[in-house]
């Protein structure tokens, strides 16, 4: 009986040893996988951040590729790094294969991000390369346009060799296995490796009776992959939808125990009589005398089994942190032999100046586990970062006895994180603070000023010669000049002053604790020095001048953006005054600067028309009652040479002031009629609104131009609504009357826009017959708070109804205003709360897709 008890107890110990060892292996593998996926995700986010940087598009393709791929493509197991657009076209790829042969649109990771904006980091099923790079997993994130629409994906392909190499380092015993599964039950990686099993559905596997209800655990099961009974230990990989499991065959776990059972059984059969007497005599003594020793031996056996099989650096320490024993991974990591390591303390090779590990909370019983990152010095002098995980081992009466400590090398991850942190706050070209980080510094200076009263100064510096260098010598020379200026600036500033690059040829400088007067003198010396220096390039040299605007940071300042805008205005004033000088911000400068910018914009309008930098947008007009027609108001947008959109409230007034609006109107008419023809093919009942400016109304040739354009576009006039503002009607009365009559005669509708903004609004409703009255948005927007505005809107609607016109409420920005307009009986509503303007091509694409879906549904039904 005693032998049976011992054998059963020993079997339990053997199973506990195997379970502990497998748990350590699973934990070590989970940490390695989680850290690597974290680095992959950081790499993808770096690519996305750089693509969205406004300066990125100005670099040449070679530099773009280097910025996107070279810094993150050094990892051993990265099979590929790539970026696609919304049509799955590969824009950048780290391999030399022809991107046109990559059928990205067929893979699940592309479809998931296209259809699900909230997908986050997506982990694909195993994919086999068509170009000989083997199997891999694809980690991807969605790229979005500023308005949130799908713009493509950025992804990193991780070779399955990473998992195979990692798993093969582990001691799994005979018929052991390691597996990585997705939460949805699909197999991603396994040792032993089998291509047929990759991606296999495994939802019926035993692990899914426990996971994801529990993050970790152990159980016995017969494998669905190869039919081998195993003890399985699993754990979830961080917060990711993955689980890693370590499985050891039941046969290998109990083979030694089974042999001992056979030997002991033979002896028992021979010596049964003697043993029974001896067992009865010794049983009580053994329980009393050896219980504590057996428990200590069991703990020691468990620890040695776990440490020996673990693939992560592990050490057993005394409570004073003196090393008692270490495993092979420990000696490989730190470079000490086992004999050299025994007797040392981690304090002896901790990085100089860093705090030594503190185990006080463990020893006091406040926690059972402690994890923290430390920097250590190896035997060969290398410095490395480790994740130190310590747990307490207690003796048979519960007193602290030993420390069980594991060290995981995280040097590569720390270096990658530091690189990413630096890239997030610094300009790639110059190494100075980027705009976002510099604005944070302005906010810090403003907070200090508000709390202490100390005044600071902010300088906005714009180089005067960069465009000349770019145009004559190319952007490589311009980039070199920017780097040269960034290097030179600190030499002329005070110690502690903060310098950043704001974009293009603009720099910012914060002069801390410096009055506006002292700052002026410092910047004048800087300007004189820069004017005297020649920038050499090839066989030529260029003078470097700068216009500098100066604003004061005081406790009365509004916000960082306001201070920066003031310095920008002062800089523009310096340019207007002749460049190469310092100008202090004064409020009266703002109007002059606005006028100068308006002139600059006007000068580029014709060039924008010629170069195709005008874009046609559209905004939906929605019917409050039963829907009869889709309506769209066409709007024009202009892009500058740098690719940024010039605000409408800047370029439209400039075009009107300098007699360029007629040319813009004619471009809009032609493009809007072409878009109307395309809309007609999928929605022949739609209505398209086209705006006409006051200047165009005064053009005697406009009527003939519109009629010819309608005829050439092949568009039925009933689809067109021409919008004329009330103020334009007042200024061009006679010509407008003739134009309105002709357009209504051929079947077009006329809308009176911004109605209510003039002094004689109702008089024009009585004089001119119009089809729609668009109520001025200033009244509509104030309806929810002003009874006066409510009554004005209601009166306009009622009078328009009496005259047979429909009404449109503009500037609808929330549900409450929309509900109020509907209750008044207003015919249509329009505004950002309903639909934000977007490119007309995007609307056309949705209309075609909707039409194709309807046709397909009809075909199925028939």
Average of per-residue pLDDT values: 83
Largest sheet: 8 strands, mixed, barrel
Number of helices: 27
Low-confidence stretches: none
Q: What structural class do the secondary elements suggest?
A: alpha+beta
- Order the strands across the largest sheet as they lie in space: 24-25-27-28-29-30-31-32
Distance between the termini: 81 Å
| Total count of strands | 33
Outline of this structure?
This protein is of the alpha+beta class and 862 residues long. It has 27 helices and 33 strands. It is 46% helix and 23% strand.
Describe it.
It contains 27 helices and 33 strands. It is an alpha+beta fold and 862 residues long. The strands form six sheets. Strands 24-25-27-28-29-30-31-32 form an eight-stranded mixed β-barrel, surrounded by five helices. Strands 1, 2, 3, 4, 5 and 6 form a six-stranded antiparallel β-sheet that branches. Strands 8-7-11-10-9 form a five-stranded antiparallel β-sheet. Strand 31, helix 26 and strand 32 form a beta-alpha-beta unit. The radius of gyration is 38 Å and the shape is globular. 33% of the residues are buried.
């Amino acid at each position: 009986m005693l032998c049976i008890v011992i054998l059963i107890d020993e079997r339990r110990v053997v199973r506990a040893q195997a379970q502990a060892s497998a748990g350590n292996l699973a934990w070590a593998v989970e940490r390695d996988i989680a850290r690597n996926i974290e680095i992959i995700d950081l790499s993808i986010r770096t690519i996305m951040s750089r693509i969205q940087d406004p300066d990125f598009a100005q670099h040449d393709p070679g530099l773009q590729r280097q910025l996107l791929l070279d810094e993150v493509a050094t990892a051993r197991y990265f099979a590929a790094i790539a970026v696609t657009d919304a049509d799955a076209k590969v824009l950048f790829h780290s391999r030399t294969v022809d991107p046109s042969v990559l059928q990205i649109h067929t893979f699940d990771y592309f479809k998931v991000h296209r259809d699900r904006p909230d997908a986050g980091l997506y982990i694909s099923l195993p994919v086999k390369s068509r170009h000989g790079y083997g199997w891999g997993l694809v980690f991807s994130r969605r790229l979005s346009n500023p308005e949130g629409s799908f713009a493509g994906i950025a992804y990193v392909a991780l070779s399955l060799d990473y998992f195979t190499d990692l798993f093969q380092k582990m001691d799994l015993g005979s018929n052991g296995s390691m597996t990585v599964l997705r939460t949805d039950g699909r197999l991603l990686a396994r040792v032993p490796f089998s291509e047929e099993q990759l991606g296999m559905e495994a939802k019926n596997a035993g692990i899914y009776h426990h996971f994801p209800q529990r993050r970790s655990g152990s159980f016995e099961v017969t494998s669905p992959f190869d039919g081998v009974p195993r003890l399985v230990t699993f754990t979830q990989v961080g917060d990711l939808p993955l689980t890693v499991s370590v499985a050891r065959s039941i046969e290998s776990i109990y083979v030694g125990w089974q042999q001992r059972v056979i030997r002991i059984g033979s002896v028992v059969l021979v010596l049964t009589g003697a043993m029974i007497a001896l067992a009865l005599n010794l049983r009580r003594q053994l329980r009393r005398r050896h219980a504590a020793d057996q428990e200590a031996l069991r703990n020691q056996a468990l620890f040695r089994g776990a440490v020996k099989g673990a693939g992560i650096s592990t050490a057993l320490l005394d409570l004073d942190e003196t090393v008692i024993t270490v495993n092979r991974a420990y000696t490989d990591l730190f470079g000490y032999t086992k004999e050299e390591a025994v007797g040392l303390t981690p304090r002896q090779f901790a990085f100089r100046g860093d705090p030594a590990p503190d185990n006080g909370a463990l020893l006091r019983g406040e926690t059972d586990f402690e994890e923290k990152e430390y920097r250590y010095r190896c035997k060969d002098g290398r410095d490395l970062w480790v994740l130190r995980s310590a747990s307490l081992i207690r003796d048979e009466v519960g007193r602290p006895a030993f420390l069980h400590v594991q060290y995981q090398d995280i040097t590569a991850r720390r270096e990658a994180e530091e690189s990413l942190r630096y890239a997030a706050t610094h300009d790639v070209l110059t190494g100075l603070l980027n705009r976002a980080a510099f604005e944070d510094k302005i906010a810090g200076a403003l907070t200090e000023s508000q709390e202490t009263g100390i005044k600071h100064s902010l300088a906005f510096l714009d180089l005067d010669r960069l465009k000349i260098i770019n145009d004559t010598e190319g952007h490589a020379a311009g980039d070199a000049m920017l780097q040269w200026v960034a290097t030179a600036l600190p030499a002329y500033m005070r110690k502690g002053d903060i310098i950043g690059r704001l974009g293009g040829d603009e720099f910012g400088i914060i002069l801390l604790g410096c009055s506006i007067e002292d700052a002026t003198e410092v910047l004048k010396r800087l300007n004189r020095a820069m004017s005297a220096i020649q920038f050499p390039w090839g066989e030529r040299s260029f003078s470097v001048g700068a216009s500098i605007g100066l604003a004061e940071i005081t406790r009365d300042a509004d916000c960082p953006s306001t201070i920066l805008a003031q310095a920008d205005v002062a800089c523009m004033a310096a340019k207007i005054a002749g460049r190469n000088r310092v100008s202090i911000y004064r409020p009266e400068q703002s109007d002059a600067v606005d006028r100068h910018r308006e002139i600059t914009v006007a000068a580029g309008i014709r060039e924008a028309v010629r170069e195709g930098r005008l874009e046609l947008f559209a905004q939906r007009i929605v019917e409050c009652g039963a829907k009869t027609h889709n309506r769209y108001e066409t709007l024009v947008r202009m892009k500058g040479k740098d690719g940024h959109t010039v605000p409408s409230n800047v370029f439209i007034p400039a075009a009107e002031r300098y007699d360029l609006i007629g040319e813009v109107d004619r471009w809009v008419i032609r493009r809007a009629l072409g878009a109307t023809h395309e809309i007609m093919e999928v929605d022949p009942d739609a209505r398209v609104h086209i705006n006409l400016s006051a200047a165009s109304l005064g053009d005697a040739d406009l009527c003939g131009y519109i009629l010819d354009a309608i005829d050439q576009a092949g568009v039925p006039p009933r689809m067109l609504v021409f919008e004329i503002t009330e103020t334009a009607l007042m200024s061009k009365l006679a010509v407008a009357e003739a134009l309105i009559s002709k357009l209504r005669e051929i079947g077009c509708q006329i809308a009176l826009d911004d109605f209510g903004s003039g002094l004689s609004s109702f008089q024009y409703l009585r004089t001119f017959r119009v089809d729609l009255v668009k109520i001025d948005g200033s009244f509509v927007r104030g309806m929810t708070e002003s009874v006066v505005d409510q009554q004005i809107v209601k009166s306009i609607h009622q009078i328009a109804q009496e005259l047979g016109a429909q009404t449109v409420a503009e500037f609808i920005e929330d549900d409450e205003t929309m509900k109020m307009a509907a209750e008044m009986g207003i015919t249509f509503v329009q505004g950002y709360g309903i639909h934000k303007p977007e490119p007309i091509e995007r609307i056309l694409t949705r209309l075609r897709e909707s039409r194709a879906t309807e046709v397909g549904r009809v075909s199925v039904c028939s």
